[in-house]
Amino acid sequence: VRHIFLGTVIAALLTSPAPAQKIVGGPYVVNATTGNATVAWVVEDSQITLHEPDQQSRTSPALRVEKTTLTGLKPGSRYDYDAAGTHGYFKTPPLGAGPYNFIVYGDTRSRHDVHRRVMTELLKHGIPDFVLQTGDMVVDGDDSSLWPVFFDIEKDLLRQTVFFPSLGNHERNTDYFSNFFLKDNPYYSFNWGNGHFIVLNSDIGNVAAGQRGKDTYWAAQTQWLEDDLERNQKAEYRFVIAHHPPFTAVASRQGQNPHMTALTPLFEKYHVTAALFGHDHNYQHYLKNGIHYVVTGGGGAPLYDVSKPAPGITQKVVSIENFVKVSADSAGLHFEAIDINGRTIEVRYPVKVTDLSARLPG
Ligand SMILES: [Fe+2]
């Protein structure tokens, strides 16, 4: 009798649907400081299947984040870890002028095969200490089915670095952004070695429904930006990162981001070294009043033209998928833009605050 009972239980266990829990993102590391870092990963618990009249049914995964904050870390150190079935590592920021490097890229939201090719090329050029993502990671931030695709393509990079994302218009101010990347506020700043990095939320279109809400948000963020810049004048370099660029060579998109163009006097007043953007799917570099403005939105989304470069300030504009590598050491900043085929688009070395226009042929 006992055997029959056990057999029935086992049969019931075998036939009842197993929980579909699986890891669909990460592990990845966010919010690293000289003493702390958070390792996180995304879990799919189950799915919902939606049946629409006259349409194929589609599934949406239910996603949640697991995370652990590691404390008591030492500056400038490598830490290996095992999490969510994957081996990974990250480095904490060095103190002072210690050498470091980072990669900037964005607009990975579509053409997943191209995103994958950019990622393959990026990994060939060395693993960066950290990554600045300029936004538009996915085509619709609220669509949970898209995030596992993004995380799958970025998996090898993310398990070996620290990730600092910015919010693009295609994220649509989604809660997934704050949940996955543990950002209470989509605008934030951090220090890495002798650099101070300010990430802005330039997606004013999605912060509030009405104009008054947008204006209030923008005024608060601008005040925060000015305060943060003022407090960090002792850093050797100041970088601003946002999705929407203040200038563009894309003919049909000129003058579309006046809120960002209006910030450039603040960048000048507080000696920003370089401002880094996405949104336009190409490579653009401007030098205006001592500040480098770079658009690197070449992570996979369909390419845009560069047919109307701004006279007088344009350094280089190319319509190609790309990413930008920046290294800081005692000589200054080494800056290289690289295309999807591994070819150098542009090289500058060194770029110092005191010598912003120094240039070697690429
Ligand atoms: Fe965009």
Features:
362 residues; alpha/beta; 7-stranded mixed sheet; 6-stranded mixed sheet; 7 helices; globular; binds fe (ii) ion
Can you walk me through this structure?
With 362 residues, the protein is an alpha/beta fold. The protein is 21% helix and 34% strand. The protein contains 7 helices and 18 strands. The chain has helices at residues 2-15, 112-124, 147-158, 175-181, 211-231, 258-261, 264-269, and strands spanning 22-30, 37-50, 58-70, 78-83, 86-91, 100-105, 130-133, 162-165, 188-192, 195-199, 237-241, 274-277, 283-288, 291-296, 314-318, 322-329, 332-339, 344-351. The strands form 4 sheets. The chain has a 7-stranded mixed beta sheet with strand order 9-10-11-12-14-13-15, with helices on one face. Helix 2 packs parallel to helix 3 (147-158). The radius of gyration is 22 Å and the shape is globular. The protein starts with a helix and ends in an 11-residue tail after the last strand. Residues 353-362 have low confidence and may be disordered. Bound molecules: fe (ii) ion (FE2).
Tell me the layout of helices and strands.
Elements: H1 2-15, E1 22-30, E2 37-50, E3 58-70, E4 78-83, E5 86-91, E6 100-105, H2 112-124, E7 130-133, H3 147-158, E8 162-165, H4 175-181, E9 188-192, E10 195-199, H5 211-231, E11 237-241, H6 258-261, H7 264-269, E12 274-277, E13 283-288, E14 291-296, E15 314-318, E16 322-329, E17 332-339, E18 344-351
Parallel strand pairs: 6-7, 7-8, 10-11, 11-12, 12-14
Antiparallel strand pairs: 1-2, 2-3, 4-5, 6-16, 9-10, 13-14, 13-15, 16-17, 17-18
Bound molecules: fe (ii) ion (FE2).
